[in-house]
Amino acid sequence: MAKRKNAKPSKLVPGKGVERRVKPWNEAEIGEAFSRFQKANPAPKGELLHKDAFTLLVAVVLSAQATDAGVNKATPALFEAADTPAKMASLGEAKIRDYIKTIGLYRTKAKNVLALSEKLLAEFGGKVPDNHEALESLPGVGRKTANVVMNIAFGEPTIAVDTHIFRVSNRTGLAPGKNVLEVELGLLKRVPERFKLHAHHWLILHGRYTCIARKPLCPVCVVRDLCRFKDKTKELPPEKPKAVTKSSKMKISKR
Ligand code: SF4
Q1: Environment class of 240 (CB within 10 Å of its CB; exposed 0-12, middle 13-18, buried 19+)
Q2: Is the confidence at residue 255, as pLDDT, over 80?
Q3: Do 34 and 160 fall into the same domain?
């Protein structure tokens, strides 16, 4: 993969339970793990509601340091009012802010959504560009957002590393690394091509619903026998777990 500008290591550092590097999985273990993710969930999807590349871009920008569920509460009304760069630019900052005020950092995000819409109109013919460099030139869009948009909207086999993927990669032995960039590059090198397109979603869903930060649901984990995490849980929490890896029973926007 070509090295891109702006490729700065994120400040995300290994958290609880991933302080020690584990022995990386070998090729056979990686293939086996992804075969199981694929069997459990053959067509994984992201959880951010969107209609097209533009609304996806806006949703991903809004999701920084916020949950997808929180973003999904605000975006239907926002996209009803403005689902194109031109409509978003006409809406203006104050109204955008009003629609997204339940989302953290909404003031900055409203500025960015307006500015990126204006830039799309001025420099990209009102279309979301399909390359990393152009995407990362947009206000509020960094490496992770560009990776998500390239993967979901344009089908590029990129892997955007968020807190869930970072944790899963370190705990299991899939792609141990001390920062987000190291993990991302490790994943791109180690995940077999046939699994790369969906790897991002499989790993996010696994981290979000099974390999959760505190008390992962190891007893129902499909890669339990392969996983190198030394503090695996032996029992499920008393309350019913939300889901296991096949957990995409959620509202999913159609692309
Ligand atoms: S066994 Fe536990 S720690 Fe390992 S991947 Fe599964 S849920 Fe995570």
Answers
A1: exposed
A2: no
A3: yes
